[in-house]
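HUMAN: Please help interpret these tokens:
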Amino acid sequence: MSDLQQRSPKAEVPISDLPFHSFERISMGLRGVVCTSNPLASDAAMWALKDGGNAFDAALAAAAVLTVVEPQSSHLGGDVFLVAYVAKENKVYALNGSGRAPREIDISAFAGGIPERGPLAATIPGAVHGWCEVSRRWGKLPLKRVLQPAIEYARDGFPISVRLARSISTLASIISMSPYARQQFLSIDPKPGNILRQPALARTLESIADRGVDGFYQGEIAKEMVRGIREQCGVFSEDDLREHDTIVVVPISTSYRGVKVLEQPPVSQGHILLEELNIVENFDLKSMGLLSADTLHVLIEAKKLAFADKARYLGDPEFSKIPVEELVSKEWGRRRAEEINLSRANPQPEFGHLGRSNTDTTYLAVADSEGNAVSWIQSIFFVFGSGVVAGNTGVLLNNRMNGFTIQPGHPNTLEPGKRPVHTLNAYILMKDDKPWIVGGTPGGDYQVQTNLQVISNLVDFDLNIAEANDAPWWASLEGNNIRVENRVRQDILAELEKKGHKIDVIGAWAGDRIVQLVQFGSNGALLGASDLRGEGYAAAW
């Protein structure tokens, strides 16, 4: 099969030689390709490329637009993680743009648990600092030009999408708790097609465009954020904002059947994906068959084992020693693989002994003709995050404090100035030390298990990026409970039940994921595929 991996020149033609229906929705170009969850964001990214920008400018343009048109999923008050391949350096970087717990936070106030919503649920926003770091290090265009589409959509408005309308309707009671959020999102009838304008958000974006990091973390915007949060009983301070930093490091990695997989180190749970792959590599999935009961069983059991280790070991490496090197080693994967019984599901694996999904997130992937690639994910955690808008800034805050535990002595125990564990992760697959696939998805704890499925589809079964994206989805929940799209055959589900899995069958395309995939072809072509489960599309030039 060629790098383009085409079966037909026609679009959206069902493919019959797979155990599921797929549609050839692959966009192809030579100068750039971008995959996002919203057409307006994809268009903004293409505009940046055509204006002389590179993949990093395009990704930032898309990310900024997404905070305006998909505020339920990501915002200026959230966090960002990314893996970036910089072609001129032939180097890969991992950027952690997540925020810390406020310095004034008091864990004793959370004896009854960390609140899911409200001002005390928010960590310091990290996304904007991460954006500016990307622009400073790797961008070609002025930040003001890159942010212009987002500013215009915030100031002039945009048509509310079906997905946003549904989210506003469902979360109206949460939004109403904050007077500033109520004004921003409920001042009009939030029906699909109605125009939503966010003038306060536009002013904040303009401040960032003019002054960069200082336009958000210092000065009038910072003062108003702190005032607005404290008015609503939060504990942010100007020092919290001024002292925020972005971490740029070397990614962690493993190989999977000869393909190098690059991921985010902690506090991201990217190492969980690497552990899953190292476990699965001990089984011959290709001989088991695509979407067979044995293949699905191995993938599900590997997820359980890796998540058991996550629950025990993951935390902020600035506060605790996290045994990442051991957890992503081949030897550890082999030892954990020995615990998988091919005939029986394990309802509750214990963590290895070393020597939720109501979340919403935005993922995007971009590549350009220079060879640059960026795998970018940003979020405010739950749908509409904390539900709190910080004063007259238009900034919707995250509720990432819920990533902490209050269990004493755990690596992820809440402390002032500490970063919580993040579900956010993004990956790049490499062949011959060059990018091959850029991929990721939203979905909370579903992220790493969805990424596991997609990578297996690509590597084990040689599916193209559209097929790998369209394959029926499953998710492992608590115990032996799994959710499966109804396109998996009934006889396969019956075999899984015999192994002890408890199955909840959902709609054909109802999986909690919106995968974006970009591929580098060996002939210079750039390919993109956007998940049919979302509202986005792959744009190519």
